[in-house]
What we know:
Shape: rod-shaped
Structural class: alpha+beta
Largest sheet: 6 strands, antiparallel
CATH class of the largest domain: Mainly Beta
Number of helices: 2
Oligomer: single chain
Distance between the termini: 67 Å
Amino acid sequence: xxxxxxxxxxxxxxxxxxxxxxxxxxxxxxxxxxxxxxxxxxxxxxxxxxxxxxxxxxxxxxxxxxxxxxxxxxxxxxxxxxxxxxxxxxxxxxxxxxxxxxxxxxxxxxxxxxxxxxxxxxxxxxxxxxxxxxxxxxxxxxxxxxxxxxxxxxxxxxxxxxxxxxxxxxxxxxxxxxxxxxxxxxxxxxxxxxxxxxxxxxxxxxxxxxxxxxxxx
Length: 217
């Protein structure tokens, strides 16, 4: 737009209009900048660092599993009363600030085999598998992780079958300590007189894994 032929008054009117339009645009920009500044002024002076983000991401899922490594190739149960050792579990890296809801023990058995030639199974009611954090004493610091009743792990004579996945009761209130460390697992006779035993010799468990699952919010 040119000013040719326009009077001085008209030129002044157009210049004033341009100033008004420009000032309005500047006012909008200033308002937006003030709003952004209000938001950024409320940010913490020390924003979340990597460890904070890792802690948040560590609570992304409702539970966290820790498993033995490696699994036991074979665990043998016979008709005698004796300690039976299962693979231990290393718990490491539990995120801080967890609110635990439940803690359970898991036992997985890939295969069961009888070598007694007769139908075989756990031959005592209420026998248990126990766990304890390294450094404790069996008979004092261990708790029941899983109970197997009479006829559990039933396998036909000289037969083989797929094994179960078994989960124990909530341990959150019974464990004296919950946290990182190596958890020892065994069916205890010497200190508790509570070991698993089978009807015949032997009941063989193959590819046995133990785990701890922590449920949290």
